[in-house]
Amino acid sequence: MYTTQFYTLMVRHLGLCRLLKCVPAKYDANLKKIVPIDNPRDIKIFRIQCIISLVYTTAMFLNLCVGPLTIPKKFQGVSFFGIYFLLLFCKWNYHLDIAPIQVLNSFVQFEKGLVKGHETFKVSTQSQLMVYFMEILHYSVMAFAAGVFCLLLLDPCFPPFLLSMSRQCEIIRWTNFGPEILILVFETWMAAQAMYSGSMWAFYILFVGISCILNYLQILNSKMTHAKNLVEHKLCIRTYRQVHILEKMFNGFLMARISPVVVTVIPAIQIIAQYVSVTMHDQIAMPGFLIFPLFMVDGFTNDVLVFTLASWINSRSKELLEKYGGNMRHMAGGKGRTYLRKEMRSLNCLKLKFGSNFIDRGTPLIIQNFCLAQTMQLIMIRSSR
């Protein structure tokens, strides 16, 4: 549940974002909810960060396309470019859209009424795993900026970062203070603010939202099972519709900014990481090569864990409606039963959408099959030359 398991984690993450001024939202301790920032200076700083991130990511792309990089170096760089592009897409909010704030507050407000009478609700295994997963992600975000700093200390020419654009990067020495020191500090700052701002909504709306909706369906299933009279059944149907409205808000925000890049960019990074791990292990020096097995495992974990949980939203809501409809056949006849059956027929299954499609049970397998097939095609094309 958001209020009992994830809210503290979210407020902690948001507090770090506020230190970097990279998210146009803050936690109001008096109202106990997330509110938009209202300080003109903070708004200006956030918008400047958005523009800097856009220019920085564009420079990465141009470096990969027309820069003085070899093919192995370009493969090294494209994975990092994919990460920064994904984070930029998730972060971008130049016009200060309050949709993500509304979604988060709606989850919290809805739970206040839902959990009444279910204070002793048993936490599901999937929720416990998501809590552990979020803790791991929290420290991974912290480690990313430190990792970029250390990586550039060891190899200033590592693509697609700014120093790799210079043909003099190989002679850089960190013993003397110069422009390269300032670039190193800038790269570390960019990594920190990009990771914290880009992951804020992906983690605490997409990942946590999926887990919370599954919890709501679990509580609703308990209520529907124990409903005995017309009033209780009406309350169950009303609650399901409230969950459906929440799902519409959830999808409305995700489809505009997060779902498209998560579904496309992360599998693309996994494909590249698999290809490089198999074919270029003897061309890329350590420790640069180690990032590719890491990206491969991260991409696989994301695709399997997140998409599998997302597919459960559709399958479990479908099972819930079928079970509830079957229970109604055993109710006593009369106007109440006729009314409830009509109401039941008006209910639809929940879906996590991306574009015109939605995630079902087969989506995780389809994505992994696609990643493996594309990797094999790239390997075969390379071996035929």
TrEMBL record:
Task: Indicate whether Transmembrane appears among the record's keywords.
Answer: yes
At the highest ranks, the source species' classification is: Eukaryota, Metazoa, Ecdysozoa, Arthropoda, Hexapoda
Name residues in a coiled coil: none
TM spans (from-to): 45-66, 78-94, 136-154, 201-220, 258-277, 289-313
Domain of life here? Eukaryota
- The protein here is known as Odorant receptor
| Organism listed in the record | Folsomia candida (Springtail)
Keyword Ion transport: yes or no?
no
Keywords, in A-Z order: Membrane, Transmembrane, Transmembrane helix
